[in-house]
Amino acid sequence: MIASFAMLHRLYLHPKMLIESCFSLIRGENGDFFFRLGGILTFVNCWDVKWSMTVQNLFTFAKLVALVIIILTGVVQLCYGQTQHFNFEGSESDITKIALSFYSGLFAYNGWNYLNFVIEELKILTSENLPRAIFISCILVTVVYTFTVVAFHTTLSVAEVLGAEAVAVTFADSLYGSMAWVMPVFVAMSTYGGVNGILFTSSRLFYAGAEQGQMPRILAMIQVKHLTPAPAVIAMALLSILYLCSSDIYALINYVGFATWLAIGLAVACLPYLRWKQPNLARPIKVHLIFPIIYIIATIFITVVPMMADPVGTGFGALIIATGVPVYLIFIYWENKPKAIRHAIDGATRTLQKMFVVVPAEKTM
To answer: Residue 40 — pLDDT band, cuts 50, 70, 90?
Structure first.
């Protein structure tokens, strides 16, 4: 449904226009298209959770279809003995650059983290469901992406992969002839699915933070008719628009990657501390301490070492985290605010409540 809304007029006029839009999206040239896409996906996530999940399932299926096509093509290429690009020529040995490169690689595997944000959306929540979902998804993604990279290198050299605007599209252009147009469509659908998934999950992070009193309380309210966290979704969409100010996707990945892994690393560091200080806490999900320790060591490597390779990029990542400090200090930490400021905050909250028709969620025990 969303794909139809987003591209109906292009598809109706001529298929070539659809393909050109996909290429523009892949190259990041069509800023207006990004805004319209973000607006449509924001509307879907505010309107109905089922709509959002239907969109996600559709685009995830399209992505998997594209990856299976690429992998099967790679198998055929291997059968023909196309292994000339499997070498380590020109490999990077600088440890700081290797650490920095992890941001781009881990960006593709970050779905396990977003899964933690939507625990409340699970219909059957048990102590086994979440770890099982993360375990299965991590293995599946690792296997599929590894086979995909192998498939790419049956046809493309390392230089061609690094120089490609969209590797899957370059791969298709080399092998699929007149049917190469399908790959930009699949890549664009994969992009839509990624945007929708992050919008859905990250808005729940805002919602949970506001519920715990760590963010403005308007973000913990739900739409009375559609039962969706509309303010949190809209806040996430507005922040996403700010990221469009950067035209360098790799710099943006480095900014967000540093901030993300630093934040996750600090959160994981709390696990050994709490095991030591509060050993009797209820722990529905419990893992051996060796796993958080390994994770903390890896986080130190991919956050500290890149500071030497890209101090500006990591500095911007730290700045992204720092933007939350004034929000926390003003809205949360500062309890004895002057009456005028409290009235202004309460007035703004009531105005937004009326605008979005939202109320605090009722929790059932």
So the answer is: confident
Among 354, 262, 271, smallest CA distance to 299 is for: 262
For 360, the 3-state DSSP assignment is strand
Sign of the Cα pseudo-torsion (188, 192, 195, 201, in order): negative
Compute φ and ψ for 337, nearest 5 degrees.
Answer: -75, 150
Q: 365 Cβ partners below 8 Å, 6+ apart?
A: none
- pTM equals 0.75
- With 70 as the cut, is the pLDDT of residue 255 above it? yes
Alpha carbon distance 84, 57 (integer Å): 37
The distance in angstroms from the start CA to the end CA of the chain is 36
pLDDT of residue 125: 57
Q: What are phi and psi of 300, to 5 degrees?
A: -60, -40
CA distances from 180 to 10, 172, 308, 347 (A): 19, 5, 41, 55
Q: Is the dihedral of CA 208, 211, 216, 220 positive or negative?
A: positive
Do 172 and 180 contact (CB within 8 A), yes or no? yes
Burial of residue 296, with CB atoms counted within 10 A of its CB: 0-12 exposed, 13-18 middle, 19 or more buried: middle
Helix (H, G, I), strand (E, B) or coil at 358: strand
If we measure between CA atoms, which residue out of 84, 97, 321, 361 comes closest to residue 230? Answer: 361
Q: What is the largest CA-CA distance in the chain?
A: 77
- Stated length of the chain: 365
